[in-house]
Amino acid sequence: MPLRSRLVGVGTYLPERVVSNDDLARTVDTSDEWIRERTGIRQRHIAAPHETCAFMGAEASRAALAQAGIAASEVDLVVLGTSTPDQAFPATAVRVQAALGLKGGFAFDVSAACSGFIYALAAADAFIQTGKARTALVIGSEVYSRIVDWNDRTTCVLFGDGAGAVVLRASEEVGPEAPGILSTHLNSDGTAGDLLFVDGAVGRHDGTGFIRMNGREVFRHAVAKLSAAADEALAANGMSHEDVDWLVPHQANKRIIDAMGKKLGLAPERVVVTVDRHANTSAASIPLALAEAVRDGRIRRNDLVLLEALGGGLTWGSALVRM
Ligand code: COA
After folding, report:
1. Which residue CA neighbors atom 26 of ligand 1 most closely?
2. What pLDDT was estimated at residue 176?
3. Smallest Cα–Cα separation from 128: which of 3, 296, 253, 262?
4. pLDDT band with cut points at 50, 70 and 90 for residue 201
5. 96-107 pLDDT, tens per residue?
6. Domain residue ranges in the chain
7. Would you say residue 93 has pLDDT above 90?
8. Superfamily of domain 180-322, CATH level 4
9. Which residues have CB under 6 Å of ligand 1?
10. What pLDDT, on the 0 to 100 scale, is given for residue 252?
11. Mean pLDDT throughout 229-254?
């Protein structure tokens, strides 16, 4: 019998150092006003050298396991979404596994840029549904400060560092009202790969390796594709916009987030927003936002939560979760 993945814990880690828009305006030709008006971003956290992708992922995981009341030794799967791994290999997920003292189970990274958490969640969900794992850590951890060109004002103001994690547990309760992941939908279109990419490969030491983006085009794709993704998720579950209690979108730009909230007919207070304080933390943004709203009591048991993201690839997708 298929099993359902129940979301039983959330955790986060944010680097200590906070960099404001005014701080950035001292080094590039930008202003707090421009950044806030175009993106909604006020500040971002930037990792210190010891705050690596694995370090932050492990800290977020410990917090998620503590919240779930589950011992690390019970974890038999670690899936980590990142496009800023500490090393090409081993996967950051196995570094996290080691940091948690785990020797069993299996761990791997997922590379889907800003959709990394949705892809990681979908992968873990599939392993749980088919009985191949029972307790999974799903992590988004990113150190975009390493791949941002700090001289390029069109991108460097947009990103931040951080990590978020959730614990999934197999559950035999699978009825329509039973808690857990109701569906995931993943999409990609490689023909749009040059709209948002990193201009270098691992092992090339030629001054490449920075984010490049056609912001306007990405914006256009984001609104259209995320709207379609929301409809796809709801239709697959025989639900409508009114059924959604919370939208927890990828946090790239407040204007995209607002457009999605409007499209779903959700009151602004039903849309979880962290982009103002975290900026775009890529694969980490959804678990960071979800954890914040769970911890402060906004998202409660049985609430229906729609997660959605679009990122480089292009990749995009959704997850519909009954908490
Ligand atoms: N500070 C001041 N001015 C800036 C600037 C900055 N940080 N970055 C760009 N500008 C300037 C541009 O040079 C341009 O000037 P010009 O008209 O003299 O050429 C002007 O601002 C407008 O630039 P444009 O790129 O058209 O702005 P925009 O309204 O499209 O906003 C983004 C830019 C990046 C904020 C917006 O396109 C966006 O959010 N796109 C989606 C990005 C995204 O979500 N990426 C991640 C997906 S996971």
Report:
1. 216
2. 75
3. 3
4. confident
5. 999 999 999 999
6. 4-171, 180-322
7. yes
8. Thiolase/Chalcone synthase (3.40.47.10)
9. 30, 34-35, 38-39, 114, 153-154, 157, 213, 215-216, 218-219, 222, 252-253, 256, 280, 310-311
10. 97
11. 96
Active-site residue among 114, 156, 185, 253? 114
- Residue 250 designated active-site: yes
**Is-catalytic flag, 280?**
yes
Q: Identify the active-site residue in 221, 250, 253, 278.
A: 250
Task: Label residue 206 by pLDDT band (50, 70, 90).
Answer: confident
Spell out the CATH class of 4-171.
Answer: alpha beta
pTM: 0.97
Say whether pLDDT at 172 is over 90: yes
Residue nearest to atom 44 of ligand 1 (CA): 252
Which of 44, 219, 258 to mutate for ligand 1's pocket (most ligand atoms within 8 Å of CB)? 219
Closest ligand 1 atom to 114 CA? 48
Say whether 180-322 and 4-171 share the same fold: yes
pLDDT band at residue 205 using 50, 70 and 90 as cut-offs: confident
Residue nearest to atom 46 of ligand 1 (CA): 252
Please give the average per-residue pLDDT across 66-80, as a whole number. 97
